[in-house]
Amino acid sequence: MRFSGIRKFLLYISAVMVSIYIVLPIYWAFIISVKKPDEIYSKIPSLVPSKITFDRYVAVFTGNEKLLPAGGRVIGSATLQSFMQGFMNSIIVGALTTALCLLIGVPAAYAFARYIFKGRTFILSFLTVTRFIPVVLLVIPLYFITLSMNLYDNVVGLSLVYTAFELPIVMIVMMAYYEGLPRSLEDAAILDGCSTFDLLFKVIVPVSLPGMIASSILAFIMAWQEFIFALVLTSSRAKTMPIVLAEFFGRYGPQYDMLCTGAILAALPILIISACLSKYIIKGISEGMGRVI
Amino acid sequence: MRYARESRNAYVLILPALLIVAMFTLYPTIYASILSLYDCLPGKACVFVGFSKYMQLFSSGLFWHSLKVTLIFVFASVSAQIIIGTLIALLIYYLPKGSNILKTLLIIPWALPGVISAAMWRTILDYDYGLINGVLRALNVCSPDEGIKWLLDPNLALLSLILIDIWRLSPFVALLVLAGLVAIPKSYIDAAEIDGASTIQKFIHIMLPFLKPIYKSIFIIRSIFAFQALDIVFVTTKGGPGTATYLLPYYMYNEAFAFLDFGGGAALAVILALLIVITICIFYYIVFRTLVRTP
């Protein structure tokens, strides 16, 4: 479609406005995290900080509260350490969830994409529908279930719950990928006498790497951002970053310098992943979420 | 033939997925429904009370208020997200250059944890030190001691939550709609253009029918998750001021984990789940058929 100059100009202006709208909260949180305290807690806060300090980030990484900029409100070293612990827990839970989702989801997706068997449609719809069971309905029972299984406040327990919840998405993305894959390669492997499991791990997995990247990014992002399960199923050792920040806000209220430092820390992996792997994420979203119903 | 012979293998491949999903989703669903019929207080054995937890809720003013607030939140934010998301998708669809950068930006609000987005927005909407009030004061729209009480005014607090949710998920809707737009065969759109259709006519008569299935999924996915918005309440208003933003999930969380009435919390969760199902059914069978017709 061809546009006249003025319409083109309007399109670009709107694109810039949308970009500013999306980036603004992240920019604002970032400059708060590097501003001097008196510039943050001002009736007219500055849009561009006059002086930049990364001391708050250094304080979080070292757990040393003495490094925090002078003039800010007092925060103990235990709080700083909880930021770091939450960050590490989020990474562990994200990685574990992703690994479990692939390990369990890839073979299942392959089976659904390539085999015809009794109950296929029923099992597939069951697995898909579970993604839509409200988290709020599951969370109270899961509190008791994880308690009784010794999985409460445990990164493994949390990862298992996330895996159960994200498997359907991973499976749908993988199935979409397998459907686009020609069968000739598998047929040749079978003719050569390859067993089902050799076929899966030596032939299918290597050729379906792009699909696996897309679904593992989705699994990681969803584990990284999840809130309700993490809130109820953890209490001290396994708290993830969103919970640490929510509790920080609950205890200290609008203590914006550290709240924003934590927020930017928690946003960092997402920003990096989005910038580097956006193609896979968009593929995952449009093939996974868009195809669910 | 190969498939019949090897179908046993298929079950082996599926079994782990089936087990873990049944364990952590099917079993808790049944568990919750049963738990809602019991009175479980800490330190005491659970007592079967039938539907009295539900009756208690139905006779409480807070429940109906919370239901009203939740419905306003869900419908306002989901419909705004669909409209804004569609506009952004159309913008990217027509954008001659730079659409990839914009698409990458669109991922970010969806991928960020809700708590993080809400915390970021909290610093923008803050009465004393927030960006919006700061700008208003700098432009002399209001005096240094005044400003908009986004999160402190009971009438604005819910709107603020809706604004945060719109920021978080309109871009996600845009990505889905865009995927639908791109899939429309070019020849249809070109033909309409030759016939002299305007941009709006093209959207209504050519694109909308193609987008119908996508809009269905978007509405369903978005309303399911909007009904469960808990994270953004936690770091912005905590249900307040007063009970102005006391959404049902927050109500449920408090019942179960602040007041330790697990039966009451489970009853609320069951009601919330039914509410989601009813909303989707109404949407599916009434709203969608009248609003968007297949040609």
Helix content of chain B: over 70%
Largest sheet composition of chain A: none
CATH homologous superfamily of the largest domain in chain A, by name?
MetI-like
CATH topology title of chain B: MetI-like fold
Uncertain residue ranges of chain A: none
| Level-2 CATH architecture of chain B | Orthogonal Bundle
Succession of helices and strands of chain B: HHEEHHHHHHHHHHH
What top-tier CATH class of chain B fits best?
Answer: Mainly Alpha
Number of helices of chain A: 13
Cα distance spanning the termini of chain A: 32 Å
Characterization of the model:
The complex is a heterodimer of chains A (293) and B (295). By secondary structure, chain A is an all-alpha fold. Chain A has helices spanning 5-34, 37-40, 55-62, 77-114, 120-130, 135-148, 155-179, 184-191, 196-207, 209-225, 228-233, 241-252, 256-289. Helices cover 75% and strands 0% of the residues of chain A. The model of chain A has no long low-confidence stretch (mean pLDDT 87). Chain B has one domain: MetI-like fold. Chain B has 13 helices and 2 strands. In chain B, strands 1-2 form a two-stranded antiparallel sheet. In chain B, a hairpin with a 7-residue loop joins strand 1 (38-39) and strand 2 (47-48). The longest helix of chain B has 34 residues, at 61-94. Chains A and B meet through helix 1, helix 4, helix 5, helix 6 and helix 7 of A and helix 1, helix 2, helix 4, helix 5 and helix 6 of B.
Tell me the layout of helices and strands:
The complex is a heterodimer of chains A (293) and B (295).
Chain A: H1 5-34, H2 37-40, H3 55-62, H4 77-114, H5 120-130, H6 135-148, H7 155-179, H8 184-191, H9 196-207, H10 209-225, H11 228-233, H12 241-252, H13 256-289
Chain B: H1 2-5, H2 7-35, E1 38-39, E2 47-48, H3 52-58, H4 61-94, H5 99-111, H6 114-125, H7 131-138, H8 154-183, H9 186-194, H10 199-226, H11 231-234, H12 248-258, H13 262-291
Antiparallel strand pairs in B: 1-2
Helix pairs in contact in B: 4-8, 4-10, 5-8, 6-8, 8-10, 10-13, 12-13
